[in-house]
């Protein structure tokens, strides 16, 4: 019997788990996929929004503005890359500038600090490569960039360091009410919990329906992206938006927390919740639209394309409430943009809800908010590198040449709580395979290290999902004594 079961190990589920792990509670996270952050969390722009876009007096506006300043502390505690580099909403004509004026007024109402409408001359000081037709912009210096999957992984690790349990590859199939709470049936096990927190992303409505609550519906909307090589990362400095449209903030050109440039997304309703394919015509539209914001984006330096699927709620706002038909069942659904920015504030709020439902929680005396520092070999000085290699020679063996990731870093990421078990799991934790060759050189060595550290045969190592096998056997197997 757990006190709390959290369904979903994206940024919302892991933030709530970490916040609740401050208290004397038995907590379990159930995740249907093969790793943490396998849904929208691993496939978004990674922007910490200032808070001017959401309509005043909505949950989106409240949690965005409250969550934004919380990132400095939590990313320092968890050793996650984060940078406040500011954002621009650029306008190309008088109509756009009217929208920018509205965004400024909305931001003031929402409580966003330091907003400023600036002219082209000021924009050029911030962004020398700004598009030739840009005439003005809304500047929000409090916006920032973070690595969302690294943050979710760090949150899960810290929650586990503080006693939380995690079950991957456990898709919830059914939930039954019991005298003491809920019985949750997955494809692998049954567990019981007094309280359930539904953080299932695009599947949150389906999980809610398992307890008889059909009060909201989630529509999947997909967005496609380009990721450009680090070699062109210094082309821009801030997050550059165009004026928002009906279903989103439009195509963005932004630096990433690790020095790439990300371009996208578009926004389209898709027929199913796993529609992560990319399409040529939509990518062309993104490319053409983005070129208006920044002159000469070198799309020939693109290293990968990908698609994320966001959860569009029919309520028009975040859903954060105890179900009206299932006591002790908390829905946290429809957390689309600015969900990443809002996540620490949402976690704090949901923890308060649990306190109210339970009637108070006892804080742990030994709660540790910090996780063990991550060694990032590429960021060390030559002296620090030499000293580290003396202590542990595995840090002297470069596995990923594009990102300068060592064997020691890969071993460490496998052996932590919530550690990597797949090639992409290593990629998300260390960036091995994130460079221009996209794992073309380092993947075989990463697989060997995973197999060794996990005591598996190398043919059992998968790329990401449970069935994404890379090897089936040796290229020249011996059968009946003959090659």
Describe the structure.
- By secondary structure, the protein is an alpha+beta fold.
- The protein has 13 helices and 22 strands.
- The protein has helices at residues 11-20, 59-67, 71-78, 94-110, 120-126, 148-161, 204-209, 280-293, 339-358, 382-391, 407-415, 423-430, 443-454; strands at residues 2-7, 27-30, 47-48, 82-83, 87-91, 116-119, 136-140, 144-146, 165-167, 172-178, 181-186, 190-198, 218-228, 239-242, 252-255, 261-264, 268-269, 302-313, 319-322, 329-333, 398-400, 405-406.
- The strands form 5 sheets. Strands 1, 2, 9, 10, 11, 12, 19 and 20 form an 8-stranded mixed β-sheet that branches. Strands 13, 15, 16, 17 and 18 form a 5-stranded antiparallel β-sheet that branches.
- Strand 21 and strand 22 form a beta hairpin.
- It is globular.
Features:
single chain; 483 residues; alpha+beta; eight-stranded mixed beta sheet; five-stranded antiparallel beta sheet; 13 helices
Q: What distance separates the N and C termini?
A: 55 Å
**Uncertain regions: pLDDT < 50 for 5+ in a row?**
none
Instruction: Estimate the mean pLDDT confidence.
Output: 96
Main sheet overview: 8 strands, mixed
How would you briefly describe this protein structure?
The protein is an alpha+beta fold and 483 residues long.
């Amino acid at each position: 019997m757990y006190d709390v079961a959290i369904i979903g190990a994206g940024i919302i589920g892991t933030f709530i788990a970490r916040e609740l792990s401050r208290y004397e509670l038995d907590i379990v996270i159930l995740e249907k996929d093969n790793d943490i952050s396998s849904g929208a969390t691993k496939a978004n722009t990674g922007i910490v929004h200032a808070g001017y876009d959401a309509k005043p007096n909505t949950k989106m506006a409240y949690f965005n503005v409250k969550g934004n300043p919380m990132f400095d502390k939590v990313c320092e505690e968890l050793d996650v890359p984060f940078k406040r580099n500011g954002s621009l909403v650029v306008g190309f004509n008088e109509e756009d500038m009217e929208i920018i004026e509205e965004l400024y007024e909305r931001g003031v109402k929402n409580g966003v600090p330091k907003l400023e409408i600036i002219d082209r001359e000021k924009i050029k000081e911030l962004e020398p490569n700004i598009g030739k037709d840009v005439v003005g912009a809304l500047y929000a210096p409090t916006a920032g960039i973070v690595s969302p999957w690294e943050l979710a992984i760090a949150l899960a690790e810290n929650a586990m360091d503080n006693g939380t349990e995690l079950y991957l590859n456990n898709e919830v199939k059914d939930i039954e009410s019991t005298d003491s709470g809920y019985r949750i049936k997955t494809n692998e096990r049954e567990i019981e919990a007094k309280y359930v927190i539904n953080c299932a992303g695009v599947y949150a409505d389906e999980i809610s329906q398992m307890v008889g609550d059909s009060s909201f519906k989630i529509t999947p909307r997909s967005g496609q992206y380009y990721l450009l090589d680090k070699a062109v990362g210094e082309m821009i400095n801030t997050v550059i938006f165009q004026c928002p449209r009906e279903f989103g903030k439009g195509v963005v050109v932004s630096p990433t927390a690790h020095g790439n440039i990300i371009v996208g997304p578009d926004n389209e309703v898709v027929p199913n919740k796993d529609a992560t394919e990319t399409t040529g015509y939509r990518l062309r539209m993104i490319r053409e639209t983005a070129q208006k914001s920044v002159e000469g984006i070198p799309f020939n330096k693109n290293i990968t394309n990908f698609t994320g699927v966001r959860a569009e709620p029919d309520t028009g706002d975040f859903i954060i409430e105890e179900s009206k038909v299932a006591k002790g069942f908390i829905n946290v659904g429809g957390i689309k943009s600015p969900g990443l920015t809002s996540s620490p504030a949402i976690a704090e709020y949901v923890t308060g809800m649990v306190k109210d439902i339970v009637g108070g929680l006892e804080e742990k005396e030994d709660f540790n908010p910090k996780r063990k520092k991550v060694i990032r070999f590429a960021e060390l000085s030559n002296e620090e590198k030499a000293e580290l290699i003396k202590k542990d020679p595995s840090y002297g063996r470069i596995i990923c040449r594009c990102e300068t990731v060592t064997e020691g870093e890969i071993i460490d990421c496998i052996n932590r709580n919530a550690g990597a078990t797949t090639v992409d799991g290593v990629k998300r934790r260390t960036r091995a395979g994130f460079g221009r060759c996209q794992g073309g050189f380092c993947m075989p060595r990463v697989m060997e290290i995973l197999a060794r550290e996990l005591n598996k045969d190398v043919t059992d190592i998968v790329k990401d999902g449970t069935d994404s096998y890379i090897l089936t056997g040796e290229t020249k197997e011996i059968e009946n004594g003959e090659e």
